[in-house]
Amino acid sequence: MFKSSPMNLLDVTISTVRLLLVPTSLDIKEECFKEFDKEVTVFMAPVPAKTIADTEEFVNTSRRNMAEGKELVCAIFNKDTKEFLGHAGLHHIDTMTPELGVWIKKSAHGMHYGSEAMQALKKWADEHVDYEYILYPVAAVNVASRKIPESLGGKVIREYEKANGAGKKMSWVDYRIYKKEFGI
Ligand SMILES: CC(C)(COP(=O)(O)OP(=O)(O)OC[C@H]1O[C@@H](n2cnc3c(N)ncnc32)[C@H](O)[C@@H]1OP(=O)(O)O)[C@@H](O)C(=O)NCCC(=O)NCCS
Predict the structure, then answer these.
(1) Domains in the chain, start-ordered, CATH in brackets?
(2) In ligand 1, which atom is closest to the CA atom of 117?
(3) What is the per-residue burial (b if ≥16 Cβ within 10 Å, else e) of 135-145?
(4) Beta bridge partners of 77
(5) pLDDT tens, 46-80?
(6) Which residues line ligand 1 (CB under 6 A)?
């Protein structure tokens, strides 16, 4: 829920030290289609797009949801080079328990870009969204991803079994990140 009157999420731009987060658009569809592959999604619920039309549908649905104030889905760019790096989302903004999600293309792993993008979206949420806690579900073995909610003061509140998008059963944990534990 927005703190004040609803804003047009398609106008939001978030700048960090190294990154630029802008509402996703069809401009990045080719790179997104190429980079969001089987390896990147191995610990994720979504599956890679089968065709570029699937990527277009993802972008169009995200933009429709942004226009309706339901979620902020940003393409992540290197601020200096404008290179596309991945996606960062704050979903279910129209509830009291929004959810953070992120993926970074393989060639840009190891730079803490995912963490930087998530810290920025959490800060944006604290400024603009009235929420009880932010949910961060993650496969238990996804160490790089677990570091993100942990750096934001998140606490594990649930452990369970679930299949990833490809149908492989694995252990998952849900982190809850509360505003009062905001530690950056
Ligand atoms: C999760 C993800 C976004 C993290 O991106 P990032 O913040 O840029 O992460 P980095 O690659 O810089 O790694 C961050 C830390 O995890 C560590 N790490 C990375 N892969 C690891 C692995 N397989 N095992 C253990 N540690 C690992 C890094 O060494 C680094 O450690 P440090 O903080 O002590 O320096 C990125 O790995 C990703 O896009 N993965 C695929 C999609 C995905 O799983 N998304 C999350 C779904 S919940």
Answers:
(1) 9-132 (3.40.630.30)
(2) 7
(3) bbbbbeebeeb
(4) 20, 84
(5) 999 999 999 999 999 999 999 999 999 999 999 99
(6) 40, 43-44, 102-104, 109-115, 138, 142-145, 147
